[in-house]
């Protein structure tokens, strides 16, 4: 698996392209778990294994969204996004917020 940084100018198109493949069934359905890592608060799991609906970045509002079956997780003012890929598919995403908080988005195929 390869981890790479996605440049901010590519966030919207990268996740739009991935979502299109995911929604069209070109990629397997998966569940998502979101862990928040903050130096002051420690590690906390925000979302436990829910069906993933999609991932997106809105440059106008500067918000990254993880849409899940029972919870939408919004990350305001992200500064960095790293993806772990294997064979053209996402295995994990790490989104770093403006204050250094890390949002680790893990996937498992159903």
Along the chain, the helix and strand elements come as EHEEEEEEE
Structural class: mainly beta
Uncertain spans, ≥5 residues at pLDDT below 50? none
Give the distance, in angstroms, between the N- and C-terminal Cα atoms.
Answer: 19 Å
CATH class: Mainly Beta
Tell me how many strands there are. Answer: 8
Q: Give the C-alpha Rg.
A: 13 Å
Task: Report on the biggest sheet.
Answer: 8 strands, antiparallel
* CATH topology (level 3) name: PH-domain like
* Percentage beta strand: over 45%
Number of domains: 1
Q: What gross morphology would you assign?
A: globular
The CATH architecture category equals Roll
Q: How many DSSP H or I helices?
A: 1
User: Order of strands side by side in the largest beta sheet?
Assistant: 1-6-7-8-2-3-4-5
The pLDDT mean sits at: 93
Structural overview:
- The chain is mainly beta and 110 residues long.
- It has a single domain (2-109), classed as PH-domain like, CATH 2.30.29.
- The chain has 1 helix and 8 strands; from the N terminus they run E-H-E-E-E-E-E-E-E.
- The mean pLDDT is 93.
Q: How does the SSE layout of this entry go?
A:
Elements: E1 2-6, H1 11-23, E2 30-38, E3 42-58, E4 63-68, E5 72-76, E6 78-86, E7 89-97, E8 102-109
Antiparallel strand pairs: 1-6, 2-3, 2-8, 3-4, 4-5, 6-7, 7-8
List keywords for this structure.
single chain; 110 residues; mainly beta; PH-domain like; 8-stranded antiparallel beta sheet; 8 strands; 62% strand
